[in-house]
Design goal:
2 domains, 79% helix
């Protein structure tokens, strides 16, 4: 989910220890940003109640940063093309820390949305730079593992950040959850300042590259389409999983635990997909579609108790946890010679889909029923099978 800078050979004699400390600082930063972007998913009800807005309107806390990040991904990359990458990353993660602290002390929903706008800038810009930073920090032989660790920060935050934040919010209130993530962001800033070396900038992407790679590469188009369908469908439903479970009578104190269960399952899904994508990439992508569709349908149909909801969320977590590594691999395989432009499109699509999912989910919750988002999300996830099938046919024709 990142735009990769042009590989720069590691400097001879660079200390692996210092390089790994810098990698861990970037990983903590990515974890902070992704957790910040998705934190409101588990806190919609308490935030909406405290600031006197509907749950659908509260969903804008996810929509706004997603939309902004979709635009910021290429803009920040190009605009900061000559600035030291350590400075850019430090400023962006520091902005996240400050914005979350502002949310924690907000007295109106407008202040929260303004803070979420700033978070969107940080998320888009940080992702667009950080993915290739391992190439600049550690010796060549350590680059694959270091890059995996950085991507692991994104994936771990996606599946654990929200439930952990929800758990903190249930224990001490939603303001405490935002404050905790704000402190995490400032801690990440300190780590980058003290642990990262200077990383001279190398501008490697231009706006003109984006339409070229999209129009000229069917694999990239398929990857972008799959990302749009799966991520929009997932966040359309998952953003409102708390009110869905509450409507089913699940005890409010159990929801944080259930989302933690989702997170643990997501980590497992990530490792399972990581073992499969090298040889079974298309099958893994198709499997994600099937698993997510089934999970949403089951949550809509089954009369949920904490036990049955937990079982469905395990299934859902397995499916969604497999998404980042699978779709990122798809994009890189489709465009091995234009990874910067292709990955930038992926970043923008991923974040735009988060925003649209939360936006349309809010409209459906306010205008239809709460469970309607599960059915709409299931349809979008199921449509991904058509994209995978179409990509397979296109590849077969090209091979001939």
């Amino acid at each position: 989910m990142t735009t990769v800078d042009t590989p720069v050979p590691a400097t001879t004699g660079r200390s692996p220890v210092k390089g790994w400390l810098a990698v861990l600082a970037v990983t903590l930063g990515i974890f902070s940003l992704m957790t910040s972007e998705l934190l409101p998913v588990g806190l919609l009800t308490p935030v909406g109640t405290a600031l006197d807005v509907s749950e659908g309107t509260a969903g804008l806390m996810v929509t706004v940063p997603g939309l902004v990040a979709a635009v910021a991904a290429p803009l920040v990359t190009v605009a900061t093309g000559r600035v030291d990458r350590r400075i850019v990353l430090a400023v962006l993660v520091g902005l996240v820390g400050a914005a979350n602290l502002a949310s924690a002390f907000a007295t109106s929903f407008a202040v929260v949305l303004a803070a979420r706008f700033l978070i969107g800038i940080s998320v888009g810009g940080f992702w667009s730079i950080a993915g290739g930073i391992a190439l600049r920090l550690v010796p060549d032989k350590h680059v694959p593992r270091a890059t995996a660790v950085i991507f692991g920060g994104v994936e771990t935050a996606s599946v654990l950040g929200v439930p952990t934040g929800t758990f903190i919010g249930d224990l001490s209130g939603w303001r405490t959850a935002f404050a905790a993530v704000g402190i995490l962001g400032l801690s990440s800033l300190a780590c980058m300042v003290f642990l990262m070396p200077r990383v001279p900038a190398e501008q490697t992407i231009k706006f003109a590259d984006l339409p070229k790679v999209f129009k000229g590469n069917a694999g990239v188009r398929a990857g972008v389409a799959m990302t749009f369908l799966v991520i929009t469908g997932h966040f359309l439903a998952y953003t409102f999983v708390r009110p869905i479970l509450q409507d089913d009578g699940v005890d409010d104190n159990m929801i944080g635990v259930l989302l933690l269960t989702f997170g643990v399952a997501g980590i497992c899904g990530n490792f399972i997909a990581g073992a499969l994508v090298a040889k079974r990439l298309r099958q893994t992508a198709a499997g994600i579609s099937v698993v997510l569709t089934l999970a949403m349908v089951l949550l809509a149909l089954v009369g949920n108790t904490a036990l049955t909801a937990g079982a469905v969320l395990v299934l859902w977590g397995l499916g969604y946890g497999a998404v980042p590594v699978t779709f990122q691999t798809w994009i890189l395989d489709a465009a091995p010679d234009t990874t910067e432009a292709a990955s930038s499109l992926y970043v923008s699509t991923f974040n735009l889909s988060i925003a649209l999912g939360a936006l349309f989910g809010g409209l459906a919750v306010d205008g239809l029923t709460t469970t309607s988002v599960l059915w709409i999300g299931a349809v979008l996830a199921a449509l991904t099978l058509l994209v995978v099938g179409g990509a397979r046919r296109t590849a077969a024709v090209s091979a001939e």
